[in-house]
Design goal:
globular, mainly alpha, 14 helices, three-stranded antiparallel β-sheet
Length: 387
């Protein structure tokens, strides 16, 4: 037995609720939809359309969920996760990273069972947000052309699990010196991993090309966090462009470097937050109450000092590798990859603007943030044995 389409009155209420700015209109639409069980199929169909439209506009599953979490509530996150996963059978294959994002959504609980009016209200609130999604730069992974064989992805390097383990320990330890040593060792492995991958890719039958991925830059203090991500990207042969309005940065680079940027940025952010909380507690014990300005200045100083140290470490690692027997092949390969990343960035973002950090006015926060970066970021590292 098939459901009949919703009545003209319900359809008009649905349209008005989506496009109106008032809660009263939304409540009216939700009431009419709740009173007409025949509208359920239409709501589901509209949800599939909104998800498919998001993909056509360049959004990915993680992007949509991140925005819904930022703008609405947990129940909306659960609802949009269900919508995305239910739409998968109707979608085309889109690559391993897309598949990983879908797999992450399977752990999201289903929306709680509520009365029809509450459910209709939640659906309309979500659809109103999805209706406003702007067009983003496409991050689609390249597909094989007709007649070409599917290129096999290179197995994950054995170095990445070691890097993840080192960063996890750095985040968990309560001793700054140990966190510093673990972070330094992780960056050491990252640099070597990047160089090894560059040389392997240069000798592959089908050359690699730069890719892009979006990383969330969440409030509060998102400016300082964006600066930190920019610094991590630069040090690892990538480039980052921050979208302040939508709360993410797009990082452009080669796949192994993108992986390490995400790992290191996430870890440094955790370490910075831990150090900031401890420093803030000490400031409060001495009678200070300007928490917001202290935190903003702390994270700004942390990002600035970390960027300086990472840049120096990256230059030292390249010089160290170039001094070995691989130097004849290494430097031209790295230069070619740098040019390819810049070209891909310019293609994706023909026009960008610069911004300045605001609200950095707390001297104690800046001093404490600089000290924390000294502990968490890199020091001079021992030379690695030749590969």
């Amino acid at each position: 037995m098939t459901s009949s389409p919703p009545s003209t009155a319900v359809e008009r209420a649905f349209q008005a609720a989506l496009y109106a700015d008032t809660d009263t209109t939304l409540d009216t639409g939700a009431s009419l939809l709740a009173a007409d069980p025949a509208s359920d199929a239409e709501l589901a169909r509209r949800g599939e359309e909104f998800v498919a439209s998001a993909w056509r506009r360049g959004w990915q599953p993680a992007d949509v969920v991140r925005l819904v979490r930022r703008e609405l509530d947990d129940v909306h996150v659960r609802l949009v996760s269900t919508l995305i996963t239910s739409q998968v059978p109707n979608d085309r294959p889109r690559g391993p990273r897309w598949t990983d994002q879908l797999a992450d959504l399977t752990a999201t609980p289903a929306p709680p069972r509520t009365d029809r009016f509450t459910h209709a209200t939640t659906v309309l609130e979500l659809y109103r947000l999805l209706l406003t999604l702007p067009t983003l730069e496409s991050l689609d992974e390249p597909q094989a052309r007709p007649g070409e064989g599917t290129r096999q992805a290179r197995p994950e390097s054995r170095m990445l699990p070691r890097i993840r383990a080192l960063l996890a320990k750095a985040e968990a330890t309560g001793f700054p010196e140990e966190a510093e040593a673990l972070s330094a060792k992780a960056q050491e492995l990252m640099a070597r991993h990047s160089i090894d991958e560059a040389l392997l890719a240069a000798g592959a039958p089908a050359p690699d090309a730069p890719r892009a991925r979006r990383l969330g830059v969440d409030a509060p203090y998102e400016e300082a966090k964006a600066v930190l991500l920019h610094a991590v990207a630069d040090a690892n042969r990538c480039k980052a462009v921050w979208n302040e309005a939508l709360g993410f940065s797009t990082v452009v680079g080669f796949e192994p470097d993108l992986e390490t940027v995400e790992l290191l940025y996430t870890s440094l952010l955790v370490q910075a937050t831990t150090a900031m909380t401890k420093a803030e507690a000490a400031q409060r014990a001495n009678g200070r109450k300007r928490t917001k300005t202290f935190r903003q200045s702390f994270l700004a100083a942390y990002a600035h000092k970390t960027g300086t140290r990472l840049a120096a470490a990256a230059a030292a690692e390249t010089a160290d590798a170039a001094a070995t027997r691989t130097s004849a092949a290494l430097l031209p390969v790295l230069a070619t990859r740098d040019l390819a990343v810049t070209a891909h960035l310019d293609e994706m973002f023909p026009t960008t603007t610069t911004t300045r950090l605001r609200g950095v006015t707390d001297e104690a926060g800046w001093t404490e943030g600089t000290a924390a970066a000294d502990r968490a970021a890199l020091h001079a590292r021992p030379r690695l044995p030749d590969a």
